[in-house]
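pasting for ref
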Amino acid sequence: MTKNNEWKLKDALMIAICAVLFGILLLGATYAGGILYGILAPAGMGSLGYEPFYGIYFMPAAFCIYIMRKPGTGMIAEILAAIIETLLGNFFGPIVILSGVVQGIGIELPIALKKYRDFGRPVMITSAVVCSVLTLIYNCFVSGYKMIALPILGVMLVVRIISAVFFCGILTPILGDRLSKAGVLRGYAICEEDAPA
């Protein structure tokens, strides 16, 4: 676990800024998924429409915990981003806030099991995979995915995992590391510790 887990004003401000920025990004991903859903629906594959964008939904948690490295930062960022997305007009409504809780747990759980000491690529990729599986299970119970044919559900999971690994396991660490090297994240744990290569 990181040496200093005491929350400061700058931590709250960072999460708030990320929540707004990612909330806008999540809304964009939702509308993009809706368009792809409409394109794929005539072929009976509409359910796959949102899957390529799922990794974007996990990014608030992945990014905040990667740069701040404190317990709870991923969960809080994910929930706040979902609230912002809802307030901005997500057509799924407040249910996305509950989705944010599940997504926050999925990203943060593998890191918590490492006692917040390891933020390397393998751990971030593991978080992306765990989050993908956990959210699909959640979708089966809450979103009616259990009615989808098993082969299509399997394809959905594979696409979701690929999306999550790209956006959270690869892109997020690259973004975090580059911002750190640019001095934008000075004062946060990512700059105080040796960032993974």
